[in-house]
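A student in our group prepared the protein record below, which I am reviewing. Thanks in advance; the entry in question is below.
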Amino acid sequence: MRRFILFFFLFLSALFELRAQASLVVGEKNITLEENFALSFVIKSVNPSLESPIYKFPELPGLRKLGVSRSKATDIQNGDPIYSFTFSQYYQASSAGTLLVPPTEVVVNQQSLKVEGFALVVSPSAQKEEVVEEDKAQIEDLFKGQNSVFLAVSTTQTQPFVGQGFNIKFSLFIPDDNSTRYSFDRNDLQIPVLIQKIRPKNCWEESFGLQEVKVSKVVYKNKKYTEYRFFQSTYFALDAKNIYIPSLSLQLLKNSERVVFSSRPLVITPKELPNHPLKGKVPVGDFRLEESVSSTSVNTGDTIIYVSSVIGDGNSILVESKLPESDYFLNFYSAGSQSSVFPFGDKMLGNKTEKMLIIPSQPGKFALKSYFNWIFFNIRTAAYDTLHSDVLFTVSGQPSDRLLNTQSETMLLYRNLEKLAAAKVIGYRWGDWRLIFNVLLGLILCWLFLLIMKAKK
């Protein structure tokens, strides 16, 4: 018996390990300079949460590593949800041409995912590349009083609203005209300690996934600098407590002699949101709604595929949306959802996509804004705002309950009608009102007939 229990335990463990295996996804191999190449791995599980895996993406010749995005998708298979967790490393090409990428590997939890060699074709940009500049006030503050080498911890917002995303970066800037030679001194020991001093405890973190120093060029007042970025993350304050980041000191080697550079301390003061019944329960940021519908003209009983995506620079992915309740007119069924966060320039964007099946049971005209709306706090207007669906569709055909005639089914119909708010009824048909009127008139006539019969007796 013990052997059987041990064997069963080992079998379940092996089955779990098998389910947790990662699979490799290689991105599009024909891109433009405006696009990024991506290497991804996917882990599927029946568990809605996943312990963050330990992974390492390779260096690719001719490409510069950008951030790592994470996404979660839900698919319904045989009535049960299956969750897919995707981690994607983005790469950027510096020039157009054909890059020969040799065989390499992606390591995930000690599992090696082999990448076969391939050619990456990078086409010139179709239009002039748009350069997104940081806010001038932030640049001025960053370089204020700096003429030589300096270490800096910077933020995109010093007074964000509670729940609003703000970036924190930790970098070393060295002027290109600097004649002194510097080199790093055991960054593998120094940087992790300094990063722990940066991370605020009262915030939700979305990391840009920098696994090595990111080197880029910065120009300030016609003076060129090389930026060595050690850390970058987006944070969402959970309360209005001040965030203090102390002065950090980094040791470098100057001609074999150790020198120390220190950053200025940084204070971030989150602002409370205005009072509202949904305060603290809705996302904070700048969002837009994108939606698509398979058809806007259908018959009763047909299936409409509706897809909505809420995209923005806030923490929209943290908000769990609810499936609208089916009513007398429309039936709603979930067909899966996907949420992702991904770096875009110096922003961390969120995307929450819902796929639903809508089956109308009554003819008429329907506006989905009566069923779907997304409330959020708009950081541009400093006020609560709502995204509404713009989808309208027309349903033709006969009511699906036309032939129903049993008492139980009639009671179900009345219960659904009682639940339905009048504001949600769009294009109620005259035919239904006429039917109800005829029934009431018939009942009144029967009552009058009984009274007459009683009076004759």
User: Anything to note?
Assistant: The helical segments are 2-19, 136-143, 187-198, 407-419, 430-456. Confidence is low (pLDDT under 50) at residues 1-19, 127-134, 403-431. The two ends are 86 Å apart (CA to CA). The chain has five helices and 30 strands.
